[in-house]
From TrEMBL:
PANTHER family to which the protein is assigned, alphabetical: COPPER HOMEOSTASIS PROTEIN CUTC, COPPER HOMEOSTASIS PROTEIN CUTC HOMOLOG
GO molecular function: copper ion binding
SUPFAM superfamilies reported for this sequence: CutC-like (SSF110395)
Source organism: Blautia hansenii
UniProt-annotated location(s): Cytoplasm
The gene coding this protein: cutC
Entry keyword annotation includes Cytoplasm: yes
Protein name, per record: PF03932 family protein CutC
Pfam families: CutC
UniProt record similarity statement: Belongs to the CutC family.
UniProt-listed Gene3D superfamilies: Copper homeostasis (CutC) domain (3.20.20.380)
Keywords from the named record: Cytoplasm
GO cellular component annotations of the record: cytoplasm
């Protein structure tokens, strides 16, 4: 399984043409992704035949949400399920760092026939093995994880344990810092067969006039760089997977 996370029509088309099996559709990937717009979903449906899992994340930051945020997320789950999303990707934690099974049940109940994946909220939970068992009990299909490290390669020891202990009851989807080279190494180390990547490159803005005195976003982010999935990067990852499977 090769999943590509995208936040634009251009990136979705690149993922499609590069051989992705499905996409995780997000908004604002530079901050880790938030819930995308309905219009973006419809546009990607128009221009690709990819399976779409939609990220449901109310905001940048932690995964302990307010009542208002959870109400909004339940409505969004239902909306994207009705639009025909194949899956929903989300995660809610308690203040103590456990999976909030009550709130997750509420989101799952709104998903209808769409499957549900637990995103990298898993990577900041207190006990990954308990959280995996809780996710399995809830009927969650996938855990996206870097092995609780900044990259999947750094987290390979935990990824290997998760893959072994999951016993095919849930898909372990390795993500963060994943590319064609890392997929081959991770497969040999962990036995994991599902991979998540953005395949991104940074493109220069078309803007010719640039005001260096004004910053519109978070410190360290340039308004004159565009992050976009590279068809070539996806193709390279696809070739590695095809070699093994």
């Amino acid at each position: 399984m090769l999943e590509v996370c995208v936040d634009s029509v251009e990136s979705a088309i690149a993922a499609f043409e590069g051989g992705a099996d499905r996409i995780e559709l997000c908004g604002d990937l530079p901050v880790g992704g938030v819930t995308p717009s309905e219009v973006l979903f419809r546009m990607i449906r128009k221009y690709t035949d990819l399976k779409i899992r939609v990220l449901l994340r109310a905001r940048f930051g932690d995964f302990c949400y307010s009542g208002y945020e959870l109400e909004m997320m339940r409505e969004e789950v239902q909306k994207f399920a009705e639009l025909g999303a194949e899956g929903i990707v989300t995660g809610v934690l308690t203040p103590e760092g456990n999976l909030d099974t009550e709130q997750m049940e509420g989101l799952i109940s709104c998903a209808g026939k769409a499957d549900v994946a637990l995103h990298r909220a898993f990577d900041v939970c207190k006990n990954p093995f308990k959280t995996m068992e809780d996710a399995i009990s809830l009927g969650i299909k996938t855990i996206l994880t870097s092995g609780q490290k900044n990259s999947a390669w750094e987290g390979r020891a935990l990824l290997k344990e998760l893959q072994a202990k999951s016993k095919d009851r849930i898909e372990i989807l390795a993500g963060a810092g994943v590319d064609a080279d890392i997929i081959e190494k991770l497969y040999k180390e962990t036995g994991i067969t599902s991979y998540h990547l953005s395949g991104k490159i940074k493109k220069e803005s078309k803007m010719e006039f640039r005001n260096p005195q004004v910053s519109m976003g978070l410190p360290g982010f340039s308004e004159y760089e565009i992050w976009q999935t590279s068809k070539e990067n996806v193709e390279n990852a696809r070739m590695v997977l095809d070699k093994f499977f």
